[in-house]
């Protein structure tokens, strides 16, 4: 790897990019347009939310309520907690999406009916989960709550109070914008790298280049480096517009946002490099790139909840870099989580990069055959 | 595809050449390349001496480009040995790449970069420092009349200008061996002449040049020529030697109805090739004087009034004789090919 040569490729790439007005406009135009377009969200019913129970009452009734809610399959109680503090921790790390809280004075609340007896804490950074919680709030728990079986006709309060963590106003952009960073980076990074590398081959430049001392590694890295900078610019555009127009909070550290974005950009570039080794023409590479977009957008949890997918879909989702990035960016921006809480997602992205680059480099040879 | 014995001597039978004792720039033995079942290059033996222009002449698909690509390590040979500038190819291809320049058939620099930027890039690729690059690029811009065009995008240049830029880029690092794949196919005669002047300047400076072509006027300028057909070397020598060694005789048939004469002579024994040249018909025969009389006789019988005269052979005759197995019979229209 020769730095002077690497730099010369970067400079050449930037010069070409500067002349390619359309691509250049797209780099900034795509994030802006998509951000403005996606003011809406898609809501769906879900099941099997990972959840925790904090039963502070520990009475016959409270246990019955837990059992009954468990049977609805909406919540899957993985943790039984003793300390309210733990709810915060688990939510932040993304280990649970909801928690059922039964207050110590549960029996008294039931009897007097002056306060809502149950509380469900949900991860408001995922709007689909908010939706599910609303569903839960409407569950008929009367059999458990009114042992006599008589429905109280004067009931003015519901049985369950929903406490919406992280997105109390339930504004869709709050959920959409962080995920949108992932969508935009995926679409531009994968596509542009795949096409940029194949362009060299298609236009015949490669035949000249491989007769020079340039190595395949220098060529690939040199061509990909400028895109990292462009990716970070896009992240900035989305963040700035998201904050200014949609009032999206950035609760975690900005450094964590950029760190995870950087890792995700590299993962997307690696995917693009891999695609470029499969395609012979720019058109082919575009087709293959689009083929990877749909699963990334649909299965990553950006559009549909991961929890509601059948296991094969979840399995595929785990392979896709965007799934991990969506978890990272929502965790950091909306739940104020740090990379320490979310390190497995970062590790998954790292693994994806290593595997993709290994395959890509083993497929690149400095020959025409 | 069965290959009939060629009427011309192949390299193996030629007497030792003048450059014997001089170091060879390229030596290849039994060079073969297959693409699936197709044999693109078939047991080629090559000896290219230093500081000369060596031409590959052959029809499209004869394996010229494939051979050049194997010689610079871009393609792996299926079989055979190659030694270029003392490097064993493909094992030492990376070392070789610092010492060769390769000009591709298609313009392969960046059309969306300027002349200056392209050369800048190539200089950096060859690890020139900024100062070295500036000096060398100024020199090249001057030598190849690109000075006024330095700020122009390469994509907006004319064919001849592009080709000068491509040549400048491939000799920027002063390679010992320059490989040119059909360099002047898309260039007008004036530019072609200038281009060849530049090539001879390079040869004077000690560069070995290997050029592939299917143009006769280009082939004639080479010091030595290898004629390729279907991946095989069918003739090898200087253009003069090849013309002298032409076993048949070239005849010029002057008559009022050259097309009729052509039709009459198609399929005639001993006629190797027919081509109309203006109002005349050029006939290449396998055998000397007998053929001339036989042809004159035959035309008279066909009611065509014609004068049949011998004419000095040219390189095209050599090329046609070497690459043609059977005179092409069917339609007269095809006899042009």
Descriptive account of the structure:
The complex is a heterodimer of chains A (369) and B (337). With 369 residues, chain A is of the alpha/beta class. Chain A has two domains: 3-37 and 172-363, no CATH class; 49-165, abc type-2 transporter like fold. Chain A is 63% helix and 8% strand. The model of chain A is unreliable at 40-45 and 147-157 (pLDDT under 50). Chain B has 337 residues and is of the alpha/beta class. Chain B has a domain at 247-336: Alpha-Beta Plaits. Chain B is elongated, with a radius of gyration of 23 Å. Chain A binds chain B through residues 2, 4-5, 7-9, 11-12, 15-16, 19-20, 203-214, 366-369, and chain B through 69, 72-76, 94, 97-98, 100-102, 104, 106-113, 117, 120-122, 124-127, 153, 169-170, 179.
Quick recap:
The complex is a heterodimer of chains A (369) and B (337). Chain A is an alpha/beta fold and 369 residues long.
């Amino acid at each position: 790897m020769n730095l002077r040569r690497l730099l010369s490729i970067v400079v050449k790439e930037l010069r070409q990019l500067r002349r390619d007005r359309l691509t250049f406009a797209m780099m900034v135009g795509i994030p802006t347009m998509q951000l403005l377009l996606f003011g809406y969200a898609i809501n769906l019913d879900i099941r099997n939310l990972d959840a925790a129970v904090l039963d502070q009452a520990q009475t016959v009734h409270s246990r019955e309520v837990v059992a009954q809610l468990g049977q609805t399959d909406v919540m899957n109680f993985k943790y039984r907690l003793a300390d309210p503090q733990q709810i915060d921790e688990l939510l932040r790390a993304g280990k649970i999406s909801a928690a059922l809280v039964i207050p110590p004075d549960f029996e008294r609340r039931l009897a007097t009916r002056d306060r809502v007896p149950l509380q469900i804490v949900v991860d408001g950074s995922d709007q689909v989960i908010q939706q599910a919680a609303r569903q839960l709030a409407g569950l008929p728990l009367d059999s458990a709550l009114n042992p006599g079986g008589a429905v109280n006709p004067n009931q003015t309060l519901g049985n369950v109070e929903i406490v919406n963590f992280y997105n109390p106003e339930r504004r869709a952009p709050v959920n959409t914008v962080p995920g949108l960073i992932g969508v935009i980076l995926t679409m531009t990074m994968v596509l542009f790298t795949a096409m940029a590398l194949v362009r060299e081959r298609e236009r015949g430049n490669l035949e000249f280049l491989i007769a020079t001392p340039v190595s395949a590694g220098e060529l690939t890295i040199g061509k990909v480096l400028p895109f990292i900078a462009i990716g970070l610019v896009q992240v900035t555009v989305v963040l700035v517009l998201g904050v200014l127009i949609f009032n999206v909070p950035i609760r975690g550290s900005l450094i964590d946002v950029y760190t995870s974005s950087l890792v995700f950009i590299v993962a997307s570039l690696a995917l693009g490099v891999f695609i470029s080794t499969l395609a012979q023409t720019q058109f082919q590479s575009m087709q293959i790139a689009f083929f990877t977009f749909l699963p990334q957008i649909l299965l990553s949890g950006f559009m549909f909840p991961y929890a509601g997918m059948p296991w094969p879909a979840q399995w595929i989702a785990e392979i896709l870099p965007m799934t991990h990035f969506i978890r990272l960016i929502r965790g950091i921006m909306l739940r104020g989580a740090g990379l320490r809480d979310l390190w497995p997602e970062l590790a998954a992205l790292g693994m994806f990069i290593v595997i993709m680059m290994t395959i890509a480099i083993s497929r690149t040879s400095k020959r025409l055959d | 595809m069965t290959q009939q014995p060629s009427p011309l001597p192949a390299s193996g039978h030629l007497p030792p050449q003048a450059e014997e004792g001089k170091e060879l720039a390229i030596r290849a033995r039994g060079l073969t390349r297959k693409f699936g079942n197709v044999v693109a290059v078939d047991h080629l033996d090559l000896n290219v001496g230093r500081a000369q222009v060596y031409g590959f002449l052959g029809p499209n698909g004869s394996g010229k480009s494939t051979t050049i690509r194997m010689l610079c390590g871009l393609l792996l040979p299926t079989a055979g040995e190659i030694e270029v500038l003392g490097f064993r190819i493909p094992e030492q291809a990376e070392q070789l790449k610092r010492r060769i320049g390769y000009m591709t058939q298609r313009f392969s620099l960046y059309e969306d970069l300027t002349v200056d930027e392209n050369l800048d890039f190539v200089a950096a690729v060859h690890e020139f420092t900024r100062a070295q690059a500036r000096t060398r690029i100024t020199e090249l811009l001057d030598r190849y009349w690109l000075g006024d065009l330095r700020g122009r995008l390469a994509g907006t240049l004319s064919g001849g200008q592009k080709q000068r830029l491509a040549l400048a880029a491939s000799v920027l690092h002063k390679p010992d061996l320059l490989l040119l794949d059909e360099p002047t196919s898309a260039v007008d005669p004036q530019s072609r002449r200038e281009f060849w002047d530049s090539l001879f300047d390079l040869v004077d400076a000690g560069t070995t040049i290997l050029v592939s072509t299917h143009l006769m006027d280009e082939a004639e300028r080479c010091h030595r020529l290898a004629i390729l057909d279907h991946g095989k070397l069918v003739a090898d020598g200087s253009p003069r030697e090849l013309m002298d060694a032409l076993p048949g005789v070239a005849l010029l048939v002057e008559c009022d109805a050259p097309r009729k004469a052509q039709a009459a002579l198609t399929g005639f024994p001993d006629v190797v090739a027919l081509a109309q040249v203006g109002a005349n018909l050029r006939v290449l025969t396998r055998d000397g004087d007998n053929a001339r009389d036989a042809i004159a006789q035959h035309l008279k019988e066909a009611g065509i009034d014609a004068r049949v005269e011998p004419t000095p052979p040219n390189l095209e005759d050599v090329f046609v004789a070497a690459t043609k197995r059977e005179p092409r019979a069917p339609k007269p229209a095809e006899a042009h090919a």
